[in-house]
Amino acid sequence: MSGTTPNATAAATADVLIVGYGPVGQLLALLMADRGRTVTVVERWPQAYPMPRAVAFDGEGARTLTAAGIGGLIGKIGEPSGEYLWQNAEGLQLLHIDGSERKLAGWPESTSMYQPLLEEELQARGARLEQITVHRGHEVVRIAQRPESVEVTAVDREGRERVFAASWVVGCDGANSFVRGETGSAFSDLGFSHDWLVCDVVHHDGREFTPNNLQICDPARPRTSVSAGPGNRRYEFMRTAGETIEGLNTEESSWRLLELFGVSPENSTLRRHHVYSFKAGCAEQWHRGRLVLAGDAAHIMPPFAGQGMSSGFRDAGALAWRLDALLAGRAGTELLDDYQDERRTHVKHAITMSVNLGRIICQTDPKAAADRDLVLRAAAERAAAGGAGPQQRSPLQPLTKGFLRRGANGKPAKPAGALSPQAPVARAGETGLFDSVVGLGFVLLTSLDPAGLLDEAEAGFLADLGAHVVRVLPSGTDPAAAGASDVVDVDDVYLPFLAVAKADTVLIRPDFYVYGAATGRADANALVGEVRAALSGARVPVTA
What we know:
29% of the residues lie in helices and 28% in strands.
């Protein structure tokens, strides 16, 4: 819709206006504010939703949350998820996923968390930043794109209209996104829909769970028991043939099914119960003019791979540095075309794996379930013997599209598109994870002497970009001997990473993905030169 109301109350123009203030909108607001950008948030609900929906984020999500300033609070809101075990109805193991304590991103591969606490901390930090202004209880009813800005009209709880203006609008407003409707994007249904009763429980006895996360693939009643953060437990039960949503979504039904896990009113408190339809879908178009989508507004997936919230966090990380570049006049909307191509391709892999896992879990035909069990049991035995098996599969993959260095064949030149590792590094007087020691933003990581590595133009561009040029020294080097641009590779991670890449220099994007790699001084200058060409262009007019 377009147009404004003459007597509507107007607001000053912000750099970015975010519609929706759930976890993805909260994270994006912090990432933009930390870049010095002004952010207006318009949220339809007057209060934050007090109950959990998601129960986990991955290591990359934890890394991005740390970049947003709440890494030190992750231990308060979450706990390492630990192992994830699938069993059949007879209790035989079908699949085992090892939730290692620390992986590539420097955090546990998965963190189980209590979502209201996460949102509380994100909002608290946002409230301390003067760049962020939040308007709760305002529902967006119109959006009008102008040549240099967007006008957003919202109605408060008393029916009063207010007009907000921003250079860019990001829809983080969920699966029924108003902003998505304004882009004109179709939303592709990816062919998965099952109803599950979700029960959030607090146990009185402080019990421990082994495994911490359990999926029971019982064709009579597929069900789940997983951590929902410290002191909280999530149980899920699939609706089966002959049951209605109304009949399933009752306290009586919840307690009856919870008995399958030994949970009763005598030993536990049922915080809430709700029937959700687990579905999968993806927007065809993620931006139009000055409107952009992120999170559930752009994609939804069943929870079986634990990638719903994490994918939204990935959107926020990929979008924040691009919007910052657009606001700085460094590039045109081709960066948003890149965002759409990059994130849509990447998230569809996660959606596909989530759907495939869901089809395995949601099998209710006894004969098909028995055949499934045979296949998974055989695969698990092969994996235990050192062969390939389902344990090696991942809902994630390297980026294959987007802002990446490409080879002569037009495909990303490895390790372009890979998530960069994060491990402990040290320099004089400081030891910690790479991001905290080196800093955030673009990073040129090299094993070469940074003095004289780059030509004046390329060095000046990186300085203007606020990038960090860092030389990695071998493990065992005395940190006191490290120069101002050096770090010691404490756990021997970064130099092997460069060796595997057959490179001595890599350029890492602000969202931790590798843009590209180089070997030798000339190639390092060419690598930086490519980014300089992409991010030093004239502003391109934006058309809706």
